[in-house]
Design a protein that fits this description.
single chain; alpha+beta; Aminopeptidase; seven-stranded mixed β-sheet; 6 helices; globular; binds coenzyme A
């Protein structure tokens, strides 16, 4: 595909589309991990409204940065990072965190994720941060494959999210 998209910093005006894309990718990526009630709940009016508020706060938070991929006025990808991880195990060691990376199913596997990863790296390098972490549901094998391809090293630390095991890939920026 010719490059018909741009990657830019997110603004609060992106909140609605950002949340919509997030929910759409969740349904696809986690279809074998969560049951439908989880997706239905996330898509309820209350939950969408909370997600929109949360996103707007993120765009104002100086520890976080958020980028979107825009194609013909539609958001088809998103990435959120934090200069200092929210996970104590990593923040104690001054790790940054790639908090979220989601690409619309029609645009996965064409290199957009890697581009977002490189933007994330530039952001943290500009602050002299050399290590970061990505958390992923243990059962999210396609994303894990991408993280391994991107040079992530499975770390000896785990956590849980919605009763599922979350594992972590640690990276050193080169
Ligand atoms: C995981 C994700 C962010 C990767 O982004 P992407 O734009 O699709 O990945 P890229 O095109 O940059 O691919 C980078 C490499 O990762 C690997 N890869 C990416 N997606 C893969 C998949 N679904 N299965 C196997 N390998 C995959 C490929 O080897 C690829 O390298 P190649 O193109 O040289 O073969 C994206 O597929 C996505 O949004 N997935 C659904 C949501 C999700 O799981 N997000 C992560 C939550 S922790």
């Amino acid at each position: 595909m010719t490059k018909e998209y741009i990657i830019r910093r997110a603004t609060k005006e992106d909140a609605e589309q950002y949340t919509k894309l997030n929910n759409l990718v969740w349904r696809q990526a986690y279809k074998n991990i969560f049951d439908n009630t989880v997706f239905d709940k996330r898509e309820s009016a209350d939950s969408v409204s909370n997600s929109i508020d949360y996103f707007i706060k993120q765009t104002k938070n100086s520890n976080e940065f958020c980028y979107v991929v825009e194609r013909q006025g539609q958001i088809i990808g998103q990435m959120t990072g934090a200069y200092l991880s929210h996970i104590e195990h990593y923040s104690q060691r001054n790790f940054a965190e790639l908090m979220a990376i989601y690409i619309h199913p029609d645009y996965q596997h064409i290199g957009i994720g890697k581009e977002l990863l490189n933007i994330f790296k530039s952001e943290i390098q500009a602050k002299n941060i050399s290590h970061f972490v990505i958390g992923v549901l243990e059962e999210n094998y396609p994303a894990r494959q991408a993280y391994e391809k991107w040079g992530g090293v499975l770390d000896n630390y785990n956590n849980t999210f919605a009763n599922k095991k979350v594992i972590y890939y640690a990276y050193t920026v080169k």
